Amino acid sequence: MIIAQDRYNFNGTILVAENGEVIYKKSFGFSNFLTKEKLTTNSMFDLASISKAFTAMCIMILKENGKLEYEDDIQKYFPDLPYEGITIRHLLHHTSGLPDYGQMFSVIWDRNKIADNDDIWEMFEVHKPEVLFAPGEKYRYCNTGYAMLASIIEIVSGIPYRDFLRDNIFDKLSMNRTQVVNRRYRSEKINEYAYSHVFSISDGGYTFPDSVEASQYVYYLDGIVGDGCVNSTVEDMFKWDRALYTEKLVNKETLEEAFTPGTLNDSSKTNYGFGWRIKNTPNGKVFEHGGGWAGYINMFIRMVDKDQTLIVLTNNSFSAYGLFDCFINILNEEEFSLPPIDFVFEIRKGLVNNDMGSLQNKIEPMLKDSINYRFTENSINNLGYELLSITRYEEAIELFQLNTNLFPESANTFDSLAEAYMVSGDKENAIKYYKKALEVDPNFENSQKMLKKLQEEK
Q1: Which residue in 59, 131, 326, 366 has its CB near the most CB atoms, within 10 A?
Q2: Are residues 119 and 146 in the same domain?
Q3: Domain count, the chain
């Protein structure tokens, strides 16, 4: 783990168990980078999307108690929403076709206000965003569906979502360091809290996400529950893991459905049950879920055929690619190789100190070393936009150009490069690369719009 901490900038807590016994448990790094308070195994992290399994369990409890049915139409609970044929089962399996609320809020919400679940449904009633596909036609991961499930839990039970979870799951399992947390919405202060940190070039390194424009959604979406918002520790999550081998919360038949893949309209299967991803691996059946939210990267893996558990909670957006599989290989005494480091993580410290010199001279050796470095379109793009936002145009353009070279079949890479030229005042190259984006994808909407605007200005 020292290698993981140094090589991948790992900052978090890990618990590994086998046959119900903890065989490794340790924390690395800080819960607060500013105060240098250290993490402990009692530190509470935002689980992000790992929360979905708890939301699904609440629905299963209500179903078992005869309070609802999986085939209930959502219009039974939301009669003013313009969506027909969507059931609770569709929400659980991510097959509803509902659009993502986050994208809508990022465009038309007042960011000085903190939204809650009711604000989602009011916005959907007013703006009536179209479904992405007919219910059951496809699988598409959907935070909106799980936020809706939380609202259904409140409608059916008559109590707040956070209280239902506490009364029906956390208290029953003695998960005393687990709760629904809306830290900004409720001005909550929690002892031994693992604050999230994001890397900001303009702020000189790691900082809290609230102060970074790209992650300010942590503020204005802080009142929304169901798709995230459960906070816990590795020790409490191990209690949750053990309970899922029992009938402490629901009976065996109800629980089995949580770990059964969804079925689409064409009878094909998905790899998602009720709040769990389902995988068949050389180590047997695996139920798992990850969670990511502005600084938090978490993973909860249950290898049920071997009764092995891996819980990883982190609070600094470390370079996680391939590392969880590496942990599993070590646990099973199998051969493993260290995964490559994301190139962006390697160069951003130099960008903070403004001592990179020529980016090209730094990038070239990494491009030739695929064993130790990997290049991903999204991370390069994000870093380019961060540089663009602080008017470091030349470096931003260099990164966007790199992305077009590495991913020439992506219209988005050319669109981003064009935007960088446009912002820097070079309209000629902006037009050139918007045209290039449309050569790759003639239907790329932003390039169409921006090219038309630039040509009209000439």
Answers
A1: 59
A2: yes
A3: 2
